[in-house]
Specification:
Blueprint (H helix, E strand, L loop, with lengths): L8 H25 L12 E5 L8 H14 L4 E5 L11 E3 L5 H4 L1 H10 L3 E3 L3 H11 L4 E5 L11 E7 L27 E5 L8 E7 L1 E4 L5 E3 L7 E6 L4 H10 L3 E7 L8 H8 L4 E4 H4 L10 E4 L1 E4 L2 H23 L1
Parallel strand pairs: 1-5, 1-6, 2-4, 2-5, 6-7, 7-8, 11-12, 11-13, 13-14
Antiparallel strand pairs: 3-4, 8-15, 9-10, 9-14
């Protein structure tokens, strides 16, 4: 929300509620820390990829990148998610590449499609972990979001921040976009900056597209091919302008940019009138919900997280050490 990016009259109007939010969240965290509220310790290591602000910071590309990095090193990894945006009411549930995103949530299905890793959803993370471990032998559990889910103990915490919006006006919900204050970053193992310029101690991530994939036929084209004509863009993610700016950065002439709510449910009636014969470019997260009624001029643009070699080594080494220690204990 734009009002969260600056201090305005609404900020001061809502500030008392932000103070109340802070008091409740601090009390809740303290109760978990002192074991007054019960928390769950997974039998395998847990890494949380989360954020301290709401809306579109880039967690899912980080999760996909991390899963792929672990798989390349022979580490068996599973992913858990709340399944936000899905209509399913029966938990826990396993998610596969063939699952219906309308039921299971777009992000879990996207992760399953991109990585082929075991994925489970439930608002209760303990249930998801139990389900995964009942069917798969895993070395590591990655939780997509859940930094503030203190009912689940974790071994490593990563926080992803938007390099452009950073912390907005600096206020907690509802006066600002923050779930926790920036001081929370001092206690996490890694802070990942999505785009722009990383501050000292942060790891810079860029999201790089290489091609566009046709929803109806599966045809792949280099993204540069779309610079030869005008196109329309669609994004139903936490921060749609990031997708539009990325396309424009690659020289694509966008005649219209259509923003939808995060986890938007789509239909042919919603999307078909938007393109008017021009190529329609959308995010991969949108595409997982549109294949069933896709038209020949609809394309999606997958992005992949990229880190420097130094950042990659710094991020992965603590995880590799953790998993090695876990496996050594398991065999003794």
């Amino acid at each position: 929300m734009k009002i969260w990016q600056s201090i305005n009259p609404f900020t001061f109007l809502l500030a008392p509620f932000s103070l109340l939010f802070w008091l409740i969240s601090q009390l809740r965290r303290a109760l978990y820390r002192k074991n007054c509220l019960k928390s769950y310790r997974s039998p395998v290591p847990v890494l949380v990829v989360g954020n301290i602000s709401v809306g579109g910071n880039g967690k899912t590309p980080v999760v996909v990148w991390l899963v792929e990095q672990m798989q390349q090193r022979g580490i068996k990894v599973g992913v858990i998610s709340r399944g936000y945006g899905g209509k399913n009411k029966l938990f826990p549930q396993l998610v596969t590449a063939q699952s219906d995103p309308e039921q299971m949530g777009d992000e879990p299905v996207l992760i399953a499609q991109r990585t082929q890793a075991p994925v489970a959803i439930s608002p209760n993370r303990q249930q998801s972990i139990a389900l995964l471990l009942s069917q798969f032998e895993l070395d590591l559990i990655i939780t997509d979001d859940g930094l503030q889910h203190y009912a689940l103990q974790r071994d490593i915490e990563w926080v992803v921040i938007d390099g452009e919006r950073r912390f907005g006006n600096g206020f907690l919900l509802p006066a600002g976009s923050l779930r926790e204050l920036p001081s929370r970053l001092k206690s996490v193992q890694a802070v990942i900056c999505n785009g722009n310029v990383a501050n000292q101690g942060e790891h810079l991530m860029t999201l790089e597209p290489t091609e566009a994939i046709n929803l109806a036929t599966g045809e792949r084209k280099p993204l540069r091919d779309f610079t030869k004509q005008s196109a329309v863009a669609l994004a139903g993610i936490g921060y749609p302008p990031r997708f539009f700016k990325m396309l424009q950065h690659y020289g694509i002439n966008l005649t219209a940019c259509h923003s939808f709510a995060d986890h938007q449910a789509y239909s042919a009636a919603i999307i078909s009138p938007l393109s008017a014969g021009e190529p329609l470019l959308m995010t991969e997260k949108d595409a997982v919900k549109c294949h069933a009624f896709a038209e020949p001029n609809w394309w999606y643009v997958p992005v992949s997280a990229k880190f420097s070699a130094e950042a990659t080594a710094c991020l992965l080494q603590p995880i590799l050490d953790l998993v090695r220690t876990y496996n050594e204990r398991k065999t003794t």
